[in-house]
Structures are given as C-alpha cells and as structure tokens.
Design brief:
Layout lengths: L5 E5 L2 E5 L3 E2 L4 H11 L5 E6 L4 E2 L1 H16 L3 E6 L2 H10 L6 E3 L2 H6 L3 H7 L1
Parallel strand pairs: 2-4, 3-5, 4-6, 6-7
Antiparallel strand pairs: 1-2
Helix pairs in contact: 1-2
Length: about 120
C-alpha cells in the first residue's frame, strides 16, 4: 500500500486516507490505492480530511474512479473538509460527478446513490 494513502475498513466500507496534498507527484499512488479497493459494485470512501491542496491530476482521478465505480453499480464518496479543495471541486464541476461529504461519519452512513435516483 502506498505510504501516502492508508487503506482501512470502517463499517465494512473501504476507506482510503488521502495525503495532505494531491498533485501530480501523489496522484498515481492514490490511484493505485483506490483501484485496489474498487471492486465491482463497491462503495469506496476517500477520506480527504487532512487534504488542503488538490490540483487537476487529483480532480481527474476522482472523475475516473467515480465513473469506474458507478458503471459497476458502486460509488465513490469523498470527505472534503478544506474550503479551498471544496471550492476547486465546485468551480470545476467535479462535485457534480462525485458525492462529497463534510465528515467521514456522513460518508459512511449515507444512503446509496441509487436510492436517490429511484426516488426522483
């Protein structure tokens, strides 16, 4: 497992802890960690509680993993605490592709995305 991205399981869901900064230097290691737990239909939580910076390589990664999981009936949930990172995700529209949560607890206890599509 990459040293910047710790994987653990909480309440049966894989949780990947992202590094302080997600950029071109760390995105490949984070991709490896996310792909390792992205089995078909999986709900994967990326904990960016400690992340204060994210560039386009990170945003591209979120979209890639989210698409891969969504196509197999799963989803990527991203915990974002940094106002700067949240703003970048909003301005670029990535927050429309990836479900974001203000806390790890909310990400772990959220209803599956498909429940929202059925209710609409």
């Amino acid at each position: 497992m990459p040293q910047d991205s710790r994987a653990r399981s909480i309440s049966g869901l894989p949780v990947i802890s992202a590094p302080d900064e997600i950029d071109i230097a760390s995105a490949d290691q984070l991709r490896e960690a996310l792909l390792a737990v992205s089995t078909p239909g999986a709900v994967v939580v990326m904990d960016m509680t400690e992340t204060t910076f994210c560039d386009s390589s990170g945003l591209d990664l979120f979209a890639e993993i989210s698409d891969r999981l969504y196509e197999s009936g799963g989803e990527l949930r991203v915990v974002v605490c940094s106002a700067m990172v949240r703003r970048v995700m909003t301005v670029t529209g990535v927050d429309q592709l990836v479900r974001t949560f203000p806390t790890l607890y909310k990400a772990l206890t959220a209803r599956p995305r498909h429940c929202y599509h059925q209710a609409a």
